[in-house]
Amino acid sequence: MLDAIIDFANSIFQPIIDLGAAPMMFILLSLLAIIMRVKVSKALEGGLKLAIALTGIGAVIDILTGNFAPALQDFVKSTGIELTITDVGWAPLATITWGSAYTLFFLLILVLVNLVMLGINKTNTLDVDIFNFWHLSIIGLLVVYYSDNLFIATLLVILLGVMKFINADAMKPTFNDLLDMPDTNPTTTTHLNFMLNPLIMLFDKIFDKFLPFLDKFDFDAAWLNEKIGFWGSKFAIGIYLGAFVGLLGQQPASTIFTLAFIGGVSLELFSIVGTWFISAMEPISKGITDFMSKRLKGRTFNIGIDWPFLAARPEMWAAANVIAPIMLFIALILPGNGILPLGGIIAIGLTPALLVVCRGKILRMILIGTIMVPVFLWSGTAIAPFVTETAASVGAAPAGIEEGALITHSTLEGPVEKFIGILVGKAAGDFSLGPVSAALGAIAAYMLLFIWYLKQMKKRNKQYELEKEKA
Length: 471
Hints:
Order of helices and strands: HHHEHHEHHEHHHHEHEHHEHH
Structural class: mainly alpha
């Protein structure tokens, strides 16, 4: 039965997935807009803008990490420290994950779960970010890797998927506030990186309780830019990071200048490309509003896309650039870590969640981000054997990696979920008291923290409503 479902899922989704993220999202968003009775030319316009934005953000990330990596490698060589696991970044891991037949099976299940939740009014978010379902698939594949139990893996993927859809609704008012989006704009995201929100919020509340004076020294990027002009701008922050990386790697003067300028232009481009995501959703916005008003009595309806629409906020990149060298130093001294952060040195698996929880308070973002870095490094180290073996089994091992070398991603989204996947996999493969107790305890703690987080978000969202009423 399961084999038939897996084959069915492959026949439906494989042709679309094979197109790649940008073409796939162009097709899906355009079709959705047409279904909502948006004019065809406007629907295509929105789809094209989203595809261009996805392509642009990927290109800028590749430019930044690709140019910084050699200097960082030179720095580590000069220290003599051995970090043997290669950080290949997110793209090879996505290729590896989509190479598994189980991924399309998990995708089909999650699409059905999303539609059911919409139908019974348990979420208002339709998730069209199909490409990034691979982040949840990795969790399921980890369970299968340790236990060969697809049923348990599917149950865990469904649980996490339900929580992601609920979280997308909870975050929507914060997105509106951060980006000055009107309530009619349906943009939200179900990306797995935001499932780190509960843990970040726990530390944020601890700071509220025990370190309230921090806010006296806090600032946002717009305030800094206003106070000191160019020297606090996105250009300048990128220049500082590039120059620091060049000096750290003992590069020649010409390379230091090049890295500084690449850093500067990358940060500016991140902000520009981020606004394209919001613009891409405008054609569908009116169509959804009209559709819901006529057929569902005005019910709110959101569209879950990829996270980079937040890239317009400079605080995210300012924090990422400060966290990058901190992450490098932590990696060198952290017990149990085997990764040199290269592909994941710009921690996009972390900083979007920091922005949402801390709402642009850079000092908090940096401090909490520093606390979170070891979680990512330990998680990346823990999944390295699984990633390496899976890459070999699906014929997707990255080129240029020595035979026998382990590969992973240092800041892959969902580090806590990776540990839960490992615990559940070991429990499903053993069924003895110790592993089962550890897995159930981890899931219980994870869900309780999420429930507490939702209560905090409801309080925040009520505050947004009060502020609107006063305005």
